[in-house]
Amino acid sequence: MCLERFWRSIYLRNSYFLRAKLGGHRGPINCFAFIGELELLASGGDDECVHIWDLKTFLCTETLTDSGGCWGQITCLTWIGNLHSGLLCIGTGRGRLVVFRRKRQSQFIEILDTQIFDTGSSVEAIKFDPNQQRMAVASHNGKVKMFRFNKEGALPTPLVALWTVNPTQAIPRALHFLNNGEDLITFHLESGELHRFCYDSQTAALKYSRAMKSPIGNADLDELNKNIVVDNINSGYDIYPTGRSIPTYALEVPATRKHIRGVVFCENGLSVVGGSDHGKIYIFNLKSPQLNQVMIQGNQTTLIQAVASRSSEERHLIVSGSSDNKSHICIWEKPTKRALQQRKREEERRGEMILLFTLLVFNFILAITWKAWFPAFKTEFKSLPSKFQNSIKDLNPLPRPNIDFVQRSTGDSQPSEIEILEDRILRKILQMPPQLTKQDSSLQIKDVALIGGKQD
Asked: Global pTM?
């Protein structure tokens, strides 16, 4: 475990790593919803049930099912509420809207199960506006309905219908609110149409309709409502400024089959993550833009249509679900910059504590064993001066007669080669001038290199 944590902190600090792999669904996984501050995860699929996962233990804490068998497949999920309470809205394949209230930290109670569309028309998208407590729901046949929550879903009438429009027969793939909930935009599959509505409490007025240059498989709006990412089904993902029909960036993703792919913004809108039809998840950085990372889930035929992302102060999470018969959920994690800095400070403090503890242990050992080592240390310490003097004597040259470096006038005696060498070394060390010699009653500079030669 320590080696794994070290590997994650050093090598994977700027990349996502597989945090957990969850199994439990039978058949394709269609949608996700984060509950609380990255506390729980809700997942829905073709097996007509919703699993609630704990994002700390990565265990399934609860499974929401329909005892009457009226739901059909789970097509979309939306969480409405604060950290510890709120509503989980479920859209089903048989046109039903189901609402569960979170009564406790991990307990959900059903408060609403209503048929809002025809049985043969599935709920395709749900979007909630916290500014005006309104919720938009779209069906497979193109209808869009607007509801208002009655005191945040209080019984007996948690939802109040406001209006219904049927702008097109194309399948809506996504709904998003703009301008503090005053505008609603809808994205439609294959037709590439973008409709933007402005509504009041009773009616809906169409402001404009624009056609994009490609089909729309999925769409997501960033947190600042500035950019929209669209799965164009063909070549990858396109980035559009809000309200425009011409993309500013085209993010290429290879495709072998024309299937819709899940795509969302991640890391507070700085990146885009999306699925594929060949078992890979692609992450793009929008600053460049460029491909940042590719994560593998499944094989070359695995279809990934469900992708979700959420960030907290400590970590970024990406959740992806496969559409195989034996499907599974992959949870990818990446620490935030703040978490990395905090971890670095903690490691530095931990290192200081380890060093301090080591010094304390060392001093303690010295204290309890001083009777064994102190006498020998004292004796050795007292013998150091004599050893130093002996070493100095060993370094001194042998005693030699005192030789004047100025030549005697009475003879032609020459200093020995050892004396000459010592003289040269000492003069270089002391930076003294060259040796002087007396010739013809005058001092002259003598070439030391020639002293060893025979003089005339």
From this structure: 0.73
